[in-house]
Amino acid sequence: MEVQQLSQQAKSAHDLMTRLTKLLHDRMLKYNWVGFYMLEDGAGSPSMLALGPFQGAMTPHTRIALHQGICGAAASTGQTVVVDDVSKDSRYLACSIETKSEIVVPVFVRGKVVGELDIDSHFPAAFKEEDRDLVEYCAGLVGRYLEKSAV
Ligand code: SME
Asked: Is ligand 1 within 6 A of the CB of residue 33?
């Protein structure tokens, strides 16, 4: 309900993403880094993911290519990726040495991936079915907000 209210209060998609990252980071104790990556307009060149609103420590990965990282995997396949142990996933790009598990959920506008919501946890296997549902719901809100504002 709180998440849904944000969508009504937000002044822009950027504002909605900022409020969502803050709410999830503040209220979900195992969500230690929460941020959006959005696809850049790759006119002529391959698209890259660029860091958007986030909460948590600064990450060295401010731009990620689609063939890199768990972030690239989620954006290029359009599928949610849950990694219970990042040390065992060769795709993983380290953001903090404390990160143990990660979830990345694509954001769609009219069926096309436009970005994603990425969450890291200091706890192994932090993302269960209900977390996946919540994060997918949040990503869906942003997608619908962007759809409405792009008319
Ligand atoms: N771990 C991500 C990179 C982004 S940081 O977690 C913020 C990845 O493997 O794509």
From this structure: yes
Q: How far apart are CA 87 and CA 149, in angstroms?
A: 39
Q: Write down the pTM of the prediction.
A: 0.95
What local confidence, expressed as pLDDT, does residue 71 receive?
98
Quick check: CB of 66 below 6 Å from ligand 1? no
Count of C-beta atoms within a 10 Å radius of residue 133: 10
Give the CA angle between residues 85, 90, 91 to the nearest 5°: 95
d(C-alpha 95, C-alpha 16), whole Å:
24
Ligand 1, residues 32, 49, 91, 92: which to mutate, most atoms within 8 A of Cβ? Answer: 92
